[in-house]
Amino acid sequence: MRYTGKLAGGLLGFVLGFGPVGAVLGALIGHQFDAYAEQRGGAGGGGHAAAVGEQFFRSTFRVMGFLAKADGRVSEQEIVAARAVMAQLRLTPAQVHAAIEHFTAGKRPGFDLEGELGELNRVCHGRRHLRRLFLELQVRAALAGNDLDGPVRPLLVRIAARLGIASLEFAQIEAALRIHARGFGPSAAPDPTEDLERAYRVLGVSAADNDREIVKAYRRQLSRHHPDKLKANGLSDSMVEHAKQRTQQIIGAYELIRERRGMRT
């Protein structure tokens, strides 16, 4: 079975667009991906692109199964979470069957996590955005499955490190995904202190930092995710749209911190 640009686009669309709208954007990415592969067909580009998609698909669901079984058993909630990922990616019946097989393989005793991550790193060489995308998918499923309880969190931190993603960036990914699910503000979070702590994590700072450091971190995050900057680097419109969403999260986090601290900046 071949997992070409359409499936790769679906994966991107799910994470970047946060749902059905993202799946539509993902389909556009996939179309561009396939067209680019066809243009490079003479140089073997299409075959390489398909190989990347296949490994990404395999690793996504195998590692997802491994994490679900990390505490010794796979709960019904974790199965529902994995099924939800498959549904939101709009997989075909054949792809769902393959995803379940990979998920089951990841649950088996003796699953070689290091080997799987090594293969993923190999095909994603020079594609840091794909490694981050992979981690975001795992965090999404784990949050819905068991809220990162037990051995899941340290395993995810270990996976992130293996992919070259620092613990601070992992914390920012988790915070952003939780924030997307609940939003900011008194009506969004039952615990205002937890709400504020998540906002600090989005900016990559802590309550101990002074106001000047908070502002610097805020501007740094805005610059890193600025849509115009990403577009100038040749990223697709869908990736730029994701940057806009991340920018809104950063602004929301900063506004909450500024209000709670009484900052005038």
Structure report:
Helix 4 crosses helix 7 (128-146) and helix 7 (128-146) runs antiparallel to helix 8. The chain has two domains: 1-165, no CATH class; 167-265, no CATH class. The model is unreliable at 12-46, 186-190 and 232-236 (pLDDT under 50). It is built from 13 helices and no strands. The longest helix has 25 residues, at 237-261. By secondary structure, it is mostly helical. It has helices at 5-17, 20-39, 45-68, 76-88, 93-107, 113-123, 128-146, 152-162, 167-182, 192-203, 211-224, 227-232, 237-261. The protein is elongated, with a radius of gyration of 19 Å.
Keywords:
2 domains; 265 residues; mainly alpha
- Rg, Cα atoms, Å: 19 Å
How far from one another are the termini? 55 Å
Averaged pLDDT = 76
Number of helices: 13
Q: Largest sheet at a glance?
A: none
Number of strands: 0
Task: State the low-pLDDT regions, or none.
Answer: 12-46, 186-190, 232-236
Which strand-content bin applies to the residues?
under 5%
**Shape, per Cα inertia axes:** elongated
Number of domains: 2
Please identify the structural class as seen in this structure: mainly alpha
| Percent range of helical residues | over 70%
The string of secondary-structure elements, in order, is HHHHHHHHHHHHH
Write the layout of secondary structure elements.
Layout: H1 5-17, H2 20-39, H3 45-68, H4 76-88, H5 93-107, H6 113-123, H7 128-146, H8 152-162, H9 167-182, H10 192-203, H11 211-224, H12 227-232, H13 237-261
